[in-house]
Amino acid sequence: MNYKRVTTIIDIIFQCTKFAQIIITFSLLIHYLIKNFRIHFIRQYTIFNIMCLFPITIIHIMMFWWAPAVLIRATQIDSFHNYLKPPMNAILFKYNIFTIISLIAFAAMVFAFSRYQTKQKQHHVEADEINKRINTASLGVKAFTHSIKNHLLAIRSETEYLKEKFKDDADTLYSLELIFKSCYYSYDMINNASSKLESIDIVLKPVKLHIPVELALQKLSSKDQAVNIEVIRLSHGSKALLDTSHMTEVCFNIIKNAIEAMHQTSDKQLTITIEDQDQWGCISIEDNGPGIPPENMNEIFSPFFSTKSSVSNWGVGLSYCHKIVTSHQGKIEVHSTVNKGTSFKILLPLY
Question: How far apart, in whole angstroms, are the C-alpha atoms of residue 198 and residue 193?
């Protein structure tokens, strides 16, 4: 086997290896995209990676395959390393094609990378903004709850005194009992809202994903359990580092919100799916309620924001959920369509 044939075979092997690497890379990215398509942030980032890699591949092919094959003509004389120029009548056209395609590919790569950076910055800004709102709300709660608690305690004290004074008047006792219960309930609600906005201690332990969901479902009242709740467990043994108590409260808050949102829905359906998505554990809670209007989507995690008229709702539940999930190095995603329903996804790194 002569030298020229050996070099030709080696060149073919290198060319095949190079193109095989490109094909494998794109195949892995597309496989990863399909596998994690339902996770919004992974889908976005994978698409951006493909968009950045594709122009690089085009430029690489142009520089190391198309350009040498078209623009360079090797002599056929053995042991004489020289190259002939391509025909002058085609050189301008071919050089222009190479330049134009390369510039377009480079511009596409820069655009994709800038979009990726913009999305990354947007996500960080949104998370920081929510945390700032929570911290600001926490300071505000501390500023007025002390005074409100003192007034409630005074009302409760006077109510007990009046109950003793009018113990023989059934109607008066009934009204005083309502006042007493209302004060007690308000005091409890203030404590609950305050505790959810203050600093929270997280104790992480390896816990199976389905446990906080099951504990949250056990906390539902009999009225809430009348809703058709379907639990789909696609993950049977995966664990994540969780604070069971706080994550149970997160699941309970979202489930409770979904049930309350469906109060006017005739066929109430709540679907909870527990599954693995690559290195992430996913708890998806989906209802068929009225959905969230687009103008409210950016406010749902803001403290004290609520569209509910209930006096028992302070609008801190979802702020608390966001705070707990991000404290677990996780993510919480919301997708909603008006008149079709809402889906919350809690994504946690698997242990």
Answer: 9
Q: Nearest Cα to 151, choosing from 190, 105, 122? A: 190
Asked whether 250 and 324 are in contact (CB, 8 A), the reply is: yes
CB atoms within 10 A of CB 54: 16
Confidence (pLDDT) at 310 = 47
Span 104-161, pLDDT tens digits: 888 887 887 787 777 777 766 766 666 666 665 565 555 556 667 677 778 888 888 8
Q: Are strands 280-287 and 341-349 parallel, antiparallel or unpaired?
A: antiparallel
Give the per-residue SS3 of 335-346.
EEECCCEEEEEE
- What is the three-class DSSP state of 222? coil
**Closest C-alpha among 291, 283, 287 to residue 228:** 287
Phi, psi of 125 (to 5 degrees): -65, -40
The helix, strand and coil proportions of the chain, stated in percent and rounded to the nearest 5, come to 60, 15, 25
Where residue 275 falls (left for φ over 0; alpha for ψ -120 to 50; beta otherwise) is: beta
d(CA 26, CA 47): 11
For residues 172-192, give the mean pLDDT.
79
Separation of alpha carbons 213 and 250, rounded Å: 9
| CB atoms inside a 10 Å sphere around CB 159 | 20
DSSP character for 11?
H
Give the DSSP H/E element, type plus range, for residue 100: helix 88-165
Bridge partners, 272 (sequence order): 231, 285
CA distance 149 to 146: 5
Beta strands in the chain (DSSP E): 73-74, 83-84, 205-208, 228-233, 239-242, 269-277, 280-287, 331-337, 341-349
Q: Which residue has the tokens 């623009």?
A: 71
Task: Work out whether the CA dihedral 133, 349, 271, 293 comes out positive or negative.
Answer: positive
For the record, the structure tokens of 64 come out as 């190391």
